[in-house]
Amino acid sequence: MHASSVTSAAETRVVAVTRPLRVFAWLSFLAEVIIIGTGGAVRLTGSGLGCSDWPLCTPESLIPLPEQGIHGIIEFGNRTMTGVVGLVALAVVLLTVHAVGGRSLVFRALWFALGGVVLAVAVYAIAAGAGVVYSAALMSAALLISVLAGAIDSLRRTARRRDLALLAWITLAGVMAQAVVGGFAVLTELNAFIVGFHYASSLLLVCVTAAFLVRMNATPGPRKAAVPRWFAVLTHVTGLALALTILFGVLTTGSGPHSGDANIQRNGFDATWLAHVHSWPGYLLAALIVVLLISAFVLRLPPRNWLIVLAAAVLVQVLVGVLQARHGLPPVLVGIHMMLASLSAAAYTVVVLKLKRPASAYETPTLAEHAGHA
């Protein structure tokens, strides 16, 4: 393919990223981080069953009753935040769809949304009439199916910046799925594994919204490696260490004193032993980041600035982890530890996306490419 063909193909995929889309994309990222904080507050204050039912707070009321006290308010506040996150994610989808496909694609998405609401109401009415216990869960599942159908239809008709559309739809579908998972966490009386999955899924949505922010400002078209192969491999190994650190952190929290309710049983693991296991990939992660950071500055590689952010986040994370372990896991420090994990994952996501850059037939070999062939 000629260089002019590559250039013209890239230009056809350029879309106008409007100011409202930028604003809501940032709000979506911030909302995903904040809801991890509110979810952590629910667990760390023992308010996990502050609302005993789902989607209602009690079988008789949508909102908490006075006798439920502060725990009901905290739990209901987190549920309200879920609605905010969902509305912001929906706004990002509609603005993105408009940017990549125009009004016609937006109207199709709205028709799917309307159809999903009608389907969900019908499913709930039938299930509730038949006495199905989890009728509300079936209603939410119907809404999620309609979102997935709308996403498939929209992406099939998207010719420009499908990456942005895909990330936006993933976020919206993920938020709706999270609502269902959160509901089952309540209905199963805070099963430690479901609660842990709920947190890990929220963290993944933080990464998806961070990726949207990066791709929103990226040049469309073919991309090529901006770092040596060994550096890319080491970066992905670092990601594995980060994932293991978070996984064992979730298991450690699930076996510790913060189960979300004073009467709830933990997952049965030895919290002290898990805390040590949790620290092993954490220290490996810190060492790998130091190697990447030094290498990136020596070779002047594109991810170097974001590696500073990642290193800072992980350093603070390690310090907070040590402090909380030595002071008996105070809720405030545990909550900060949870929030920092999401920010570390977001920073790592950006680092990975900086491993490649837009390709151009007129570029001269970079230092990274020379190092890769050395």
Q: How does this structure look, described?
A:
The chain folds into 2 domains: 16-219, no CATH class; 221-374. 74% of the residues lie in helices and 2% in strands. The chain has helices at residues 3-12, 19-44, 69-101, 103-129, 135-156, 162-187, 192-216, 229-255, 271-299, 304-326, 331-353, 367-373, and strands at 223-225, 356-358. Helix 6 (162-187) packs antiparallel against helix 7 (192-216) and helix 7 (192-216) packs across helix 11 (331-353). The longest helix is centred in the first third of the chain and has 33 residues, at 69-101. It starts with a helix and ends with a helix. Residues 1-12 and 361-374 have low confidence and may be disordered.
Short description:
Helix content is 74%, strand content 2%.
| Shape annotation | flat
Tell me the structural class: mainly alpha
The total of helices stands at: 12
Distance between the termini: 28 Å
How would you describe the oligomerization state of the chains in this entry? Answer: single chain
- Report low-confidence residues grouped into runs of 5 or more: 1-12, 361-374
What's the average pLDDT? 82
Please estimate the helix content: over 70%
Topology summary:
Blueprint: H1 3-12, H2 19-44, H3 69-101, H4 103-129, H5 135-156, H6 162-187, H7 192-216, E1 223-225, H8 229-255, H9 271-299, H10 304-326, H11 331-353, E2 356-358, H12 367-373
Antiparallel strand pairs: 1-2
